[in-house]
Amino acid sequence: MARFPTWVVIALTGALSLSLAGCSSTGGKRAEDARKAAAAQGRAAVNTPRWTFAMITHSGDGDTFWDIVQSGAKQAAVKDNINFLYSHDAEAQQQAQLVDAAVDKKVDGIIVTLAKPDALKAAVARAERAGIPVITVNSGSAQSKAYGALTHVGQDETVAGEAVGQELNERGKKKVLCVLHEQGNVGHEQRCAGVAKTFSGTVENLYVNGTNMPDVQAAIGAGLQADRSVDAVVTLGAPYADTAVKARTDAGSRAEVDTFDLNAKVAAELKDGTLGFAVDQQPYLQGYQAVDLLWLYKYNGDVLGGGLPVLTGPQIVTEDQAATLEEYTKRGTR
Fold it and tell me: Is the full-model pTM beyond 0.90?
């Protein structure tokens, strides 16, 4: 009769105990779910060809918003057996050249942002002539269809701005500083215009250099010092919200700071009341859906939207929802 070392007997006994413990109605299901999840880690859920999709955005370096977009896109790419390529440039002409480079590589699909649509028009048209399907994401919903894209995934920036204006009305605000950190970005202009459309008070646009946070802080602080009647500051990106909070402190102002977009810092500051509210456009969903919709088109000829954008926002997030969303922001999916 074979004899086993003591450590082997202990290990087998422990494994058997865990197996028996997992046979309950809940424990067994959890164990099976965990096993399936582990087995599927990093593996495609489909057997379609390994197509290559390129995403080209107008992101600058270090913008955490686009990390979340990429997180969703990469997750969908794994599921759909896609070779995912990502590139970005804040300069519109350089971004257009990146689109041209993707066309030259003969990728199977392109996802592109149209923050400065005029500069991207020719590059997108070239992709269309090459027979490469294009989906626009995040910005450029108004131009997407005219440029020949299959659909647009993102929030309607004007509608999002209008939601902010309505929220500010409910909070009794009278004068708002709307901080635009990227001049020439049509989406940013639409956001502030949307705020002005529904807000019953006064909206003043403040243009800042978003690549230089000390300058952003100084400009917002100066604006608050110059006009003490400003009782709300709206930033158009999560990284700028905390900078606006610091500027408020420097200026000795009591203005509420609100922002577009979420990250872990915003969620924490919503939770403790430092910020009033945030507008979530669900960037993870933008990346995920863009890749998934391209795959559906390649695989089955499917197109969503019916000629209209596939909206991922806006969702107004306040202190009440912050605790729940904080967990998601920490893992990089909200």
Answer: no
